[in-house]
User: Fold these one by one.
Assistant:
Number 1:
Amino acid sequence: MKHSSCILLLLPLLAAACGGSKTTEEKTADTKTFTYSGNPLVRDKFTADPAPLVDGDRLYLYVGHDEYYPGQDSASGGKEFNITEWLCYSTDDMHTWTDHGPIMRPTDFKWAVGEAWASQVVKKGDKYYFYTTVQGQDPLGKCVGVAVADSPTGPFTDAIGRPLVSDDMTDNGPRGWWNDIDPTVLIEGDSAWLCWGNGTCFLARLKPDMTSLDGEISVLDLPGYVEGPWLHKRGDIYYLTYAAHGAGKERIDYATAPSMDGPWTPRGMLTDSAANSFTIHPGIAEFKGKNYLFYHNATLTVDGHSGAIGRRSVCVDTLGYATDGLMLPVVQTEKGILE
């Protein structure tokens, strides 16, 4: 009996020891990784609205997961889109990528009824703030929500239990209750700004808590502005890049300013419309000495379903700057950033 008891006591320790010494093959099998092979970047899922975050020596890429549903191809009025969750990928070299899976779903906001849209994650201090758009119910309409996590891959939880921005707070302009979508955030020292909007470009300062507005909401007059703003700064220049009216489809334009207070000077087109896609959405990052423009097109086929207005695919190409600080036009390529 004594020998049997000793063996039983040793079994958990042996199992733990064996479990802690996995082979390379077993570790690889447990980790979802893939190698970048050109555009689109992600090949096994439809992905849209890319938002990069550089954190230390790693780049994290947040996307909406476009999913097919029966009847989608004949849907209209916004029903063509079916983003059910937000996904996260990361890399330390832009070539080998880790798939971290879903980080949040729209119904994780208890005040929301669904409909995931474009998002961005930013880091302040030791917290990660996730700004996104969902369909609110009181008041009804698109709302900007904010969630928070201790890690770039989550878990993210609703930070305030209500919308950060709702339709009753903004001018009910040309897009009506579609106004409050596509948030982007720029942090500079102790200051932070939130920009968003469809049809109208809104801008507001955030309080240091990152979960409430600080002052009035202003409207920026940008030529051809549609949606999908992205804020970034390089040197002494502030950049606001956005989806604009193109030739029957959206393209990406941008404006620059000497400060977040403006004035904002329109600089024209950064890149033209995306292949097979009505929408396009910018995400810009500098990573390990190189600059990148993330966007989406709709050229991918997954499980026999071809790309469409609501079945998009994230891509990346190199971004350049002229000596005066203006961004050089980006040509979208299938090769992407392959060397």
Note: Confidence is low (pLDDT under 50) at residues 1-29.
Number 2:
Amino acid sequence: MEKVRNYPESFLDDPILGILAKSMIEEANTKIDEVIDLVEGTGHYAIFGENYIEDGAKDQMNIAMKLPVTAAGALMPDAHQGYGLPIGGVLAIRNAIIPYGVGVDIGCRMALSIFDIPEKHYFGKDAMYKRELLAFTRFGAGREFRGLEKADHEVMDSEAFNSTPFLKNLHGKAWAQLGTSGGGNHFVEWGIIEFAERDEVLNIDKGRYVALLTHSGSRGLGATIAGHYTKVAKEICKLPKEAINLAYLDLNSAEGQEYWIAMNLAGNYASACHEVIHKRLTKAIGAKVLAKVENHHNFAWKELLNGEEVIVHRKGATPAGKGVMGIIPGSMTAPGFLVSGKGEASSINSASHGAGRLMSRTKAIQSITKSDMKAILKDHGVTLIGAGLDEAPMAYKDIHQVMAAQTELVDVVAKFEPKMVRMADDGSRED
């Protein structure tokens, strides 16, 4: 009921709660003065893998396309319903930014390190890889490094922390969480990456190599920024109730510029967290990095679209401009893929950021048993440390179907197979 109260637009199709949600929206709209009108009709947008996408995600995208600042949109094949902009939604708007269009975990990203260790050298050393994984990673809401374990990085010297009192007050928390991974679907995992042929861009020969793959974002720093500026946007930008979580800030305003600075700081901080993890684990196993690839989502970029500068929001979508490298993971037992973007205009130079959820967290916990999860892990030879049933492989879409739906968006460069996965012990909790 709390979710219905805060996000009624997400329940309009619910057979039981839909009537309540609709009446709440109608009542709220009669009480708001100076509501910004949505544009009549829904602008056309490309949908990739439409058969795998729930109606709720499409409904949310339809609303986003009605914003008066919207220039273009696209829906990726891993899309599913979120709050405001659907996860897997790409939205280009004019001279404005939507805090909830960026998302709560600002700058969440994938980072891959490929080592000079052949596959055969991994097996038989499970204990060593597990020991170092446990020693140099921290997971869960509020987790920090303390004392001598505390990490350091030049991002903590960024002048952006001094740009507003709000950001300055977050400096200490950010430093304590530097190099940690949080909860939810975030992970650090060892695996094997296979290049079916030599890759000239990365200068890597055909073969199978040990690799490290990480997924996490800006931790408490990003979550606090998102919460604060979403509230500010809602106070300034009065939208109809069904669009309230798409409240935007004009980039010519002080508030818009403050959020832009804060968002970029959170993105740089998220990247620093990955750098700390990768450097520590690379040193721990005594490896040499042959190549590193990193890409982020839950962010907004200034880009040109049809000759016009727009702000492209990718909420759970991977940048896939021509030749741009990215990583699209599957699940803890399904392969992930190192890809190169094709620069497809209709997708606004984007691709999926993963397989996407097939089940909500609640449904997964209710329908998947621990024995089911243990069996699939065993079948795939994957060692799991932490994670709840809400992150079980069965809770995600088939990554092969998702990849097949976006062949016009990316080329596959290599395939990554998870072997040892660490996630938060408390499942989906996050800051």
Note: Residues 84 and 246 are 5 Å apart (CA to CA).
Number 3:
Amino acid sequence: MAFVKISEQSSLYNDLEKKSVRELLEDINAEDHKVADAVQKAIPQIEKLVTGIVERMKKGGRIFYMGAGTSGRLGVLDASEIPPTFGMDPSWVIGLIAGGDTALRNPVENAEDDTEQGWKDLQAFNVNEKDTIIGIAASGTTPYVIGAIKEARAHGLLTAGITSNPDAPISEAAEIGIEMIVGPEYVTGSSRMKSGTGQKMICNMITTSVMIKMGRVKGNKMVNMQLSNAKLVDRGSRMVAEELGLPYDESKRLLLLHGSVKLAVDAYRSENK
């Protein structure tokens, strides 16, 4: 059966330029409602991936996101949020985009069409069988991503592909295919819309679940977050106060002394056994 890109099919809406602002917003919102349901259907595959990542990460493995354009930017975004949120070193979750960091802001011509560059980019990090490669491609056909996944899988790495099309080449190349079928985009082919929203949701699910299983969350709190601004210091101080039953000022002192909620709580309990 021939591969059909649902994500590239014509929008279900027409004459967009003739619609009022309210009509445009209502239409886009109606389409966005479809995204969470599409992601929900992919949970069994996401579960398999997260389980595999945790097994490897406990042995020192890392996560690499790979993509081009919007997909690449979303991978880099998710990776960049892990250190401040969970206090993990940036080397644990890494985002790679076709064309390099320049492509985060400006298109890099033909970068995504190079089938060999993705694996070259990975080799710069000395990847091994403990690592996981997650390719993100709404179309499911991006050569930069698929080339990297094929080589990574051949070298024993865990591989997954996130796409908006069923039976996509990326799903065939990867060990785990995560197919989030959101249908045609509101503006035909604009995968920054529903596809991008769904990709962001899935990335959130993957890394948040992994970090929880890696012990970076206690109860429901980010006890390892970086104290990089006044808001986070205040939040952390309140966490310490709630956990230990101490006054706010004493909790803040402990937090700043030890550098994280977890370390502050552990140190206090150790000293007051």
Note: The first strand starts at residue 63 and ends at 67.
